[in-house]
Design a protein that fits this description.
By secondary structure, the protein is α/β, with parallel strands linked by helices. β8 and β9 form a beta hairpin. α14 packs across α15, α18 crosses α22 and α18 crosses α24. 47% of the residues are buried.
């Protein structure tokens, strides 16, 4: 049966219309892999129902993860003189808190040169260069495990060039209301409950600095969540407890002085129970006190605390929908080699570590994407469809590159807390490495580290054997060719040039004694210069050492102190005789004549090369080396182990130096019988460099 003509007309017209519309629609470009991944990430973020920000204290990326494979880390740093030094080992408990104010950070960054961390208060005391130290995997094994299994970001910057208070404000509001430093006169309260006379420095967009009360009223992510009906909670210590100062919302007036404070700000100790019981809100902030890792507090205890918090999330029913961000609030005065981008008058500050832990986090991924604390907020805003608070979070990267939402949720990886060693220096490998750093001013070569470590650990659990081998191993570094030709040579150069200093002692009655004239602040940089690149046993080391000696002594004799003591108007004989007298008359008549002959027929001593060569002739004379050996050995106990002069605090004078020199002489230089090295490496002062 034939179809009615009107149906053919309608169908035909519809087909024509469809074709016309099809031809008129612009053709879309073929999706790229990047656009597909971005779309998947935007959709996949909805898998995240619980966002947890854990904010620890005062570490740079290089301080914690400078040795992490595949990350942009450093194991050496440039100091203010331009010299590059190896990063030492950060003790579990530091001896002090390094300055990390806005001004200190500006000094350290030095316009992007990253070379003045030693000039900020506490960055370098008596040559210990605490600012230029770092942890390794053995110190923070669980943090390294998280980095290996989840995501480590090596372009995470602190939001502000400065300390905790303003940076914590950025973690909630993507700004600090201009605050650049911590409040003063705060009595442990940083915020709207601070004393009436408490103030904080604030800076305007033109760089003008004034002061105001540390209580502000800008909008935060908490406000955005509250308005949208999305749950949130801020976990922090209570007033009067350690860590209360880092409770950022204390600085937000409309939260601190309203019922929101009591409703939404909870004790940090409540977090574990909430996580295990499935009671976490959509967004959580978590700060703590003694486990914050803020120097001088224990990193080991802090890491264990973090593991407990992460394990609680993993043990609870909300793991499969969670994203945990662990970061540190500011640089803490520690070195980092990456210059922070200058995005405005306030930041960025130096890099800080960031770990991202989630069942959807990429596995073993090092993110090189630029982040800051506002990126944390951007992630939450992206997830919950919230508007940005400031230009900072509007422009921040959202961290989605660190996630793979196409993967099945990964099962939790539970970690065990580890026993915090009584002291890091009790670890044989750490002990040996420290001898290289303290006496040879370099990182150990692999074969040397293995040899000396095995030398100690071959004792097993025999405590007497361990004590003996640790003593012998440490003394071997002073006795080594490398040190004798560098550090000990520097001591003898000062002796030949300037003679002795006079010190006071009360050992066996009050008296004066001749003591080495070189000071630790002179000895350390000079030894580092003369030993630069020298590794005894490697091909060409003798040439490197000789070149260093020639260059160093040529510079030494041109220093103002030397030219004042030895004017070029002196005759060669006067010049050599003065050096010989200062050295203790160590030259034979033949040696004296050889030294004078270096000047040829000249009647003055203006020849720099000859002056340097003559100084070396005396300093490297075997008689001087023999005569000075025990004094130098005792001196290096202070320089090497204690990193100070013998008469620096806590010693009021040279009594301790006098005691050990007398004892070493009594035993004819036998340091084992004198128990000198053993006493220094077991002393409280030495051990406190590395832990409790």
């Amino acid at each position: 049966m034939s179809r009615p003509i009107h149906r053919w007309i309608v169908v035909g017209f519809g087909a024509f219309l469809s074709l016309t519309l099809l031809l008129s629609i612009p053709r879309r470009a073929t999706p790229t892999a990047e656009s597909i991944a971005a779309t998947q990430a935007q959709l996949g973020i909805n898998n995240i129902q619980h966002i947890i920000f854990i904010i620890k204290e005062n570490r740079t990326f290089d301080n914690y993860f400078g040795t992490f494979p595949g990350a942009d880390g450093a194991i050496s740093g440039t100091i203010s003189t331009g010299r590059v030094i190896p990063l030492g080992r950060t003790p579990d408990k530091t001896s002090r808190d390094i300055s990390h104010s806005f001004q200190a950070a500006t000094t350290a960054i030095d316009g992007g040169k990253m070379d003045r961390f030693d000039l900020i208060a506490g960055g370098n005391q008596n040559g210990d260069y605490l600012a230029y130290t770092q942890m390794v995997e053995a110190n923070i094994p669980n943090y390294f495990t998280y980095a290996h299994d989840y995501v480590l970001a090596d372009r995470m910057f602190s939001s502000l060039t400065g300390p905790s208070f303003p940076n914590h404000l950025y973690t909630v509001g993507a700004q600090s209301n201009g605050a650049i430093n911590n409040p003063t006169n705060s009595q442990g309260r940083w915020g709207c409950d601070s004393p009436a006379n408490s103030t904080v420095q604030v800076m305007d967009d033109e760089g003008n600095i004034t002061t105001t009360a540390p209580c502000f009223d800008f909008q935060t992510l908490a406000d955005s969540l509250q308005t949208a009906g999305i749950s949130w909670r801020y976990y922090a210590p209570a007033e009067g407890q350690p860590g209360y100062i880092w409770s950022a919302l204390d600085g937000i007036k409309h939260i601190r002085e309203t019922p929101l404070w009591d409703q939404q700000v909870k004790l940090d100790t409540q977090f574990v129970a909430d996580a295990r019981n499935g009671n976490l809100p959509a967004v959580s902030w978590l700060v703590t006190g003694n486990a914050s890792e803020h120097p001088p507090d224990s990193t080991c205890l802090g890491e264990n605390w973090t593991v407990d918090q992460v394990n609680a999330v993993m043990q609870g029913p909300e793991w499969n929908t969670s994203a945990i961000f662990i970061t540190w609030d500011d640089f803490g005065g520690f070195y980092d080699h990456v210059a922070p981008p200058k995005v405005d008058h306030f930041g960025f500050g130096p890099r800080v570590p960031l770990l991202i832990i989630s069942p959807f986090a990429k596995q073993g991924f090092v993110s090189h994407t630029q982040y800051e604390f506002s990126s944390l907020l951007k992630f939450a805003e992206t997830r919950f469809g919230l508007a940005p608070l400031t230009d900072r979070d509007r422009l921040a990267n959202d961290m989605l590159d660190s996630f793979d939402f196409t993967q099945a949720p990964r099962p939790p990886i539970f970690l065990s807390t580890h026993a915090c060693l009584p002291n890091l220096i009790d670890d044989s490998g750490i002990f040996v490495r420290q001898q290289y750093l303290d006496f040879l001013n370099r990182e150990p070569d692999a074969s040397g580290l293995s040899f000396w470590t095995n030398n100690i650990e071959s004792c097993g659990t025999n405590s007497s054997c361990l004590d003996t081998q640790r003593t012998n191993t440490s003394a071997a570094f002073f006795l080594s060719i490398e040190f004798q030709q560098t550090g000990y040579l520097v001591e003898r150069l000062y002796k030949a040039a300037y003679g002795d200093a006079t010190g006071s002692s009360t050992s066996s009655g009050a008296h004066q004694l001749a003591v080495p004239i070189v000071r630790f602040s002179e000895f350390l940089p000079d030894t580092q210069q003369i030993g630069q690149g020298v590794i005894v046993g490697q091909n060409g080391w003798e040439t490197v050492l000789e070149n260093n000696k020639q260059n160093f002594t040529a510079q030494f004799v041109q220093r103002t102190r030397f030219t004042t003591a030895f004017p070029t108007s002196m005759t060669p004989a006067q010049f050599v005789d003065r050096l010989n007298t200062d050295a203790g008359n160590v030259l034979s008549s033949t040696d004296r004549a050889t030294a004078i002959a270096l000047f040829g027929s000249a009647t003055d001593t203006s020849n720099i090369t000859a002056r340097a060569q003559a100084l070396r002739k005396i300093a490297e004379n075997q008689n001087l080396s023999n005569a000075e050996f025990n004094r130098a050995f005792v001196l290096m106990q202070y320089f090497g182990y204690l990193r100070r002069n013998p008469n620096d605090a806590p010693d009021p004078d040279y009594t301790g130096f006098d005691f050990w020199l007398t004892k070493l002489n009594q035993f004819n230089g036998n340091f084992v019988a004198a128990e000198m090295v053993k006493a220094f490496i077991s002393s409280i002062e030495y051990r406190q460099r590395f832990g409790p």
